[in-house]
Specification:
Elements (H helix, E strand, L loop, with lengths): L2 E7 L3 H11 L4 E8 L6 H15 L6 E4 L12 H4 L20 H11 L4 E5 L4 H9 L3 H4 L2 E5 L15 H5 L1 H9 L4 E4 L1 H4 L3 E2 L3 H4 L6 H21 L4 E2 L1 H10 L4 E6 L1 E3 L10 E3 L11 E7 L1 H18 L2
Parallel strand pairs: 1-2, 1-4, 2-3, 4-5, 5-6, 6-12
Antiparallel strand pairs: 7-8, 9-12, 10-11
Helix pairs in contact: 1-12, 1-13, 4-5, 5-8, 12-13
Bound molecules: beta-D-ribofuranose and calcium ion.
Calcium ion binds next to loops.
């Protein structure tokens, strides 16, 4: 039986790769995909989500909805890495919808409809999930599991010296989700950044003009160029795709229960994740954190996922 998931994302090139793999993976039943502000603003994130679903045209269309983004956010985005449109400057076109649904409501409704059976995969700032928790005190008890791409255990960030992007962009929401009584697995930057892809990734995109291949050929070259130019990196990581594989194939990872929190105040440390790793700790474990990864295995799974999605979109 396939696993019911909701994907909450801020597309984003790596979000797009994760989404295309998930939509065509028979192990998953993607009930809904929701957008949030992060890599790009809330409007652009939803436009991208709508455009990706329309372009990929999966056999079973998930419901889609838009989140408003946090009330206030630090002045950061990732357009320098993902392009001004978040998808490598390809400016996918979509028809403006007359009515957009609320992400918070859609996520709550789906989790209530299938109590404890839905996994929420968070690939962006956790604003929508925090809003669900705030709106409905019973929400946490309906959710099956939350898998989060976010945070950093070794204290090294990507958006600031010590904060990972998704936790920094909406630290209050990240804290609310980590404090919630949900079952959580965190896939931190320390893990996702180990799975690097060199430029030869472009040669692994299946030949032919499947919709997935066309899309990847449009968005991935931008990612390599921006990582070289702005981060002096020859390769790219696809953080959100790694988080998806953690959900699909947990056997490729090791995790430990940890007690963690998110800094919501610091001038220098906003969004930094703090874990109590003292020998005698006083915090209570509140999540499972991935600590090791089979890099080759995960890379293979991502490539296989891309091939599978390409075959399905010829
Ligand atoms: C996370 O931040 C975003 O830029 C990526 O899409 C990913 O979700 C990595 O820190
Ligand atoms: Ca993302």
């Amino acid at each position: 039986m396939s696993r019911k998931v909701i994907i909450d994302c801020d597309p984003g090139i790596d979000d797009a790769v994760a989404l295309m793999i998930a939509l065509f993976d028979p192990r998953l039943d993607v009930l809904a995909v929701t957008s949030t502000a992060g890599n790009v603003n809330a409007d652009q994130a939803f436009t991208n989500l709508q455009a990706l679903i329309e372009c990929l045209d999966p056999p079973r269309r998930p419901r889609i909805a838009m989140g408003p983004g946090p009330l206030s956010a630090p002045p950061v985005d990732s357009t320098f890495l993902h392009g001004s449109d978040g998808l490598g400057e390809i400016h996918l076109e979509v028809a403006k919808l007359h009515q957009t649904h609320s992400a918070e409501k859609l996520i709550s409704d789906e989790c209530r409809a299938f109590p404890e059976a839905v996994t929420i995969l968070c690939l962006g700032p956790m604003t929508n999930i925090a809003n669900c928790l705030q709106r409905d005190p019973s929400f946490a008890s309906h959710v099956g599991q939350v898998v989060i791409m976010g945070g950093s255990v070794n204290g090294i960030g990507n958006v600031t010296p010590c904060a990972e992007f998704n936790c920094h962009f909406d630290a209050e929401s990240a804290r609310r989700v980590l404090h919630s009584k949900t079952t959580k697995t965190v896939v931190p930057l320390d893990i996702t950044s180990q799975v690097m892809f060199g430029i030869d990734l472009l040669e692994h995109i299946p030949k032919g003009d499947s919709r997935v291949s066309q899309l990847l050929n449009q968005i991935l070259p931008f990612s390599f160029r921006s990582h070289r130019r702005h981060l002096a990196q020859e390769g790219i990581s696809l953080d959100d795709a790694v988080a998806l594989i953690a959900l699909l194939q947990p056997e490729l990872f090791e995790s430990v229960p940890m007690a963690g929190d998110v800094e919501t105040q610091g001038d220098l440390t906003l969004g930094a994740t703090i874990f109590d790793r003292r020998t005698v700790k006083t915090w209570t474990n509140n999540m499972e954190v991935i600590t090791t990864v089979d890099v080759a295995g995960v890379r293979d799974s991502i490539l296989r996922g891309i091939i599978q999605a390409a075959k399905a979109t010829i």
